[in-house]
Amino acid sequence: MCGITGWVSFHSDARTQTPVLEAMTATLAPRGPDAAGLWLGERAAIGHRRLAVIDLEGGAQPMTDRPEEPALVLSYSGEVYNHHRLRAELRGRGHVFRTRSDTEVVLRAYAEWGEAVAEHLEGMFAFAVWDEREQRLLLVRDRLGVKPLFWAAVDGGLAFASEPKALFAHPEIRPRVDADGLREAYSLLFNTGPTVWSGVREVEPGGVLVLDRDGIRERRYWQLEAAPHADDRDTTVERIRDLVGSAARNQLEADVPLCSLLSGGLDSTVLTALLADELRLREGPEARIRSYAVDYSDQAEHFTGDVLRTGHDTPYAIEAGAFIGTDHSTVVLDPRALLDPGHRKAVVVARDSPIGVGDMDTSLYLLFGEIRRHSTVALSGEAADEVFGGYPWFHSPKALAADTFPWLLVTGDEAAMPLNPELDLCIGEFRDDTYRTALAAVPHLDGETPVEHRQRELQHLSLTRWLRQLLHRKDRLSMAQGLEVRVPYCDHRLVEYAFATPWALKSHDGREKSLLRAAGADLAPHSVLYRPKNHYPATHHPDYNRGLQQMARDALSVEQVRALADETRIKPCLDTPPDRLEWGHRLRLERVVDLALWLDHHRPELAL
């Protein structure tokens, strides 16, 4: 895993711009703490920060096709899990390899297939290839958007980066926010393409962008399709087991220490069990995978259920670890440490965005920091809820009947910092228009029942929107600690198969995630198999709420914060007794604190 950046301009000579490329690359140092590399040609400047995971000695970047007068230059982030098979195929086509790295497989694959390279790759990745012969830049992002890739126009071309902060180190790109950016940030619709930053865009998941002297063109090489499903229940369960198992096995490769995130929920337990079984097959019956969970001191005493959480994770995680046979650790955080200004700022800087989830972001950042002391790669159960129908909205008559994004029924305006009405952002109209556009993109089959039709909409919205903000969160906070997180449930073959499976099969036992539960019935203890869905834990300590209220008061003393926030709707949250502060109102305060930190760090121009 790494950080990539650079630019191409047909109007200037990049060879004179080494300090600019160095500055852009340096902003990504946390993503790649092991090495840095630069390549500058007349029209292109390519930078790279490396987190060494596979072929520690041979995978240096930017990678070129030959040492002298290279025709191809690659800056690559991610993991291609079918690189062994592709290497054998490319050798059969006459390609010679110098390293064991998957990076070189991507480079040789581009040499063989050109712009069609993405269709041959399986994994999570974002990369840039500069083709000196064709004077062409190719930007590629993986199918589900696990790895980020941003770009912005510069004179005569464009600049690209794993994170916006690298773009802002280019002299032609400044941090600027307009009304469209605020709508994107605070509407909670999770569009892909536009960002909070004016002029900064994302390459679409499953997307390719090409820049040459004729301009910019974009295309999608992958997207969800509605396909008939002919398998019966037993066959479907068996196929799900095979697909999840295959994804787990493929993602276990690393030349560095590897672990699993084990929360005690169904998703992480099934995944960890499959990883543990595979590790024992490879290394012997005594092999044990490390697993990690997070908790808060005094959580057992102060835990109170809310709209997202039904119970305390730690006992389930410990039971699951013992059942599987992992080397399990619980990282226990002091809730008061989550208020540390340095930690909060580090999280906001990592995200490049004012939108986060407060203590849950800070605790994840701290958890990853502890894990990184022992492991360089972690595997996570992210995306199982979207793939298998785990969220409450899949099972709610209200969500089925609603004419809006389903998560807004859970979070709504309570979870979004209310913006100053004088800004006249028309968030409601923006949500309605975006929802219509989102529904128009949902593929359907002829003859679907109303229930199947609506469930396909909810699944598509969850996979193409809700999931993407979770993947952004996990990528940014893990890479800020130099930790690579892999997400096997995002394997595109699993996603395609599950999306095609009728809802009647996905809910065949009357519960959420029926197929995963059936497929993993022997992999988890009974208590975990039938445990209700539980979201990532938040602290419930009154001292945290009290400290958060004070931080929000301080944030509201900042003139720019007051210009953007609706104080009349925030101040009642400041006066609520700390032990009675509801989750949604607390999240409003988290947003105010993060907004102040974001404004202070980036000092953006506000063009409202």
TrEMBL record:
EC number(s) on file: 6.3.5.4
Site location (Important for beta-aspartyl-AMP intermediate formation): E382
GO cellular component, one term: cytosol
The keyword Amino-acid biosynthesis is annotated on this UniProt entry: yes
Pfam families linked: Asn_synthase, GATase_7
Superkingdom of origin organism: Bacteria
Descriptive protein name: asparagine synthase (glutamine-hydrolyzing)
Native source species: Streptomyces cellostaticus
